[in-house]
Amino acid sequence: MEHEIRRVAELIVRAPLTRRNRRELLYCGLGGFAGVIGFYGQVVLLLAGLTISASVLGTVVGLLLITVALRFSRRLGAQHRRLLRRVLSRQVEAPPPFQPGTGILGRLDKRLRDRAAWRGVWYTLIKLPVAAVQLYSVVLTACGLVDVSYPVIWVLFHHHSGGAAHPLVGFVPIPFGGNIYVTSWLGTFPVAVAGAACVVAAAWLARGINAGDARLARGLLGPTSMAERVSELERTRALAVDDSAAALRRVERDLHDGAQMRLAALAMNLGMAREKLDGDDVAVRELIDAAHRNAVDALADLRDLARGIHPPVLDNGLASALDSLAASSAIPATVTASIGERPAPAIETIAYFCAAELIANATKHSYANQIKINIFSERAGVLRLEVADDGIGGAEAAHGTGLTGLAQRVSTVDGHIDVSSPAGGPTKVMVQLPLRAGGDG
Predict the structure, then answer these.
(1) CA of 226: how far to CAs of 4, 96, 121, 232, 405, in Å?
(2) Nearest CA to 210 among 350, 23, 424?
(3) What's this model's pTM, rounded to 2 decimal places?
(4) pLDDT tens track for 108-134
């Protein structure tokens, strides 16, 4: 028991000497100053906006000031999260980014209903008393360090005038503490003890108030609802899907402009070398023929690989790509397209490969005479692809036929597949995809 008490006492006394205490006090100073400045800036902007918007003529100006205050709230929240991360290594997840509406009124409405910004306003208002305690802990530490040094200050710098010593004033910034006047060297030791107590108390006060500030920041400056967290995950997933699509396009371009060109040049050079050989060089001619065939086959394989990564025909749009796909189908196929807003590149790629797989399935299994491809977009930001054939039917995702792989592919962007394929036909597969990988662009 005695050992535990000693360990706790040592932990309490050594707290001001740790590196963590320096970080805590640094955050108290920076965070407290930012809290005070942010409070007054936020209050001035909001009060000015509300006051001006109360009049009929000043409504527009007042609303603009309120939107400026909300933007300021988001920026200020980002600064507080950055301070917590860099100084205290405490991560606060950022709320979903602001999604502006279309048009002036749409943007204004979105900004005024920005829940993350209004929570930032609440944080700024509550931060003022927190900032006061943070700054007080810094002042308490500074005064305590000065008091601790009084025995040395008395010996080195205290002067006598007229035989009487000028008293030193010990600062003890605690409620009802007042000042302590020191008139002798021995009297500096109680002041030094009080200063050491102030330093220890400030260290634990800083830890406590910073822990409360971090909890407050997580509650008001981060995503608090499950819907917001889901929205943020959808946004990051959309970025990942778009980045992967862009990377695949770069790979296809590199293959087309690099390896394919070199293989084509190699095949041409081998063909020219074969033509210049004499008729007697049979063995050499056979080697060059084999190398030429291998180069041609490798070039064909590389072209197929590039088309499988990202079909170049998609550069002209999804409708044109589906027309090209229908033209190469073994079963006569027709395409009807009505696409308003062009989908994201990743969505176009998924739709293209879905159509290619469905045409291949129909060719292999349906015994159909005709395939109809219908693709159109809706106002709700949805792209629909319908592939129908007049074959024998019986297609089921659970029995292979590539439908399971298609369902997994479209599910990565929250799409889904509906299959209608009764025995005896006909078969109709509907693929629904968002125009953007994250839902609303």
Answers:
(1) 43, 11, 21, 10, 30
(2) 23
(3) 0.51
(4) 777 787 888 888 888 989 999 999 999
